[in-house]
Amino acid sequence: MKILVINGPNINMLGKREPEIYGSMSLKNIEDELFEYSKHFEGVQLEFFQSNFEGGIVEKIQSTDAHGIIINPAAYTHTSVAILDALRAVKIPAVEVHLSNVNSRENYRKISYVAEACIGSVSGFKQNSYKMALFGLVNFLNE
């Protein structure tokens, strides 16, 4: 079972960017930790992708052969109908992930266009949000 993990703009700056909000781990550290966690699930293969460009994310969604998607669209969460449409078009189960608790932050962060195309959302648990998303997605796909 192949799971595509997509990270949006500025996620490549983790560890440097507002660690009080997003934690001190780098994106590479989060990917490594999630890879290790994925070993708990038989047959799960992860593919990681990060882009600061909306079109790159849309093209990756459109071209994937993954069985499921974990997506942290970052700032595009609140603005991107294009990513929403791409997720709807491919009809691959997806889980939205956020490191911070977006519902306890600025009002504009409480709006998610992407959530409409996702089977679930996990936020507020820093790097553990990805693990929770993987657990939920794998169980959904195995049902």
Summarize the structure in words.
This protein is α/β, with parallel strands linked by helices. It has five helices and five strands; from the N terminus they run βααβαβαββα. It has a five-stranded parallel beta sheet, with helices on both faces. β3, α4 and β4 (94-98) form a beta-alpha-beta unit. α3 runs parallel beside α4 (81-90). The longest helix has 15 residues, at 128-142. It is globular. The two termini are 13 Å apart.
Layout of helices and strands:
Elements: E1 2-7, H1 19-22, H2 27-38, E2 45-50, H3 54-63, E3 68-72, H4 81-90, E4 94-98, E5 120-123, H5 128-142
Parallel strand pairs: 1-2, 1-3, 3-4, 4-5
Helix pairs in contact: 3-4
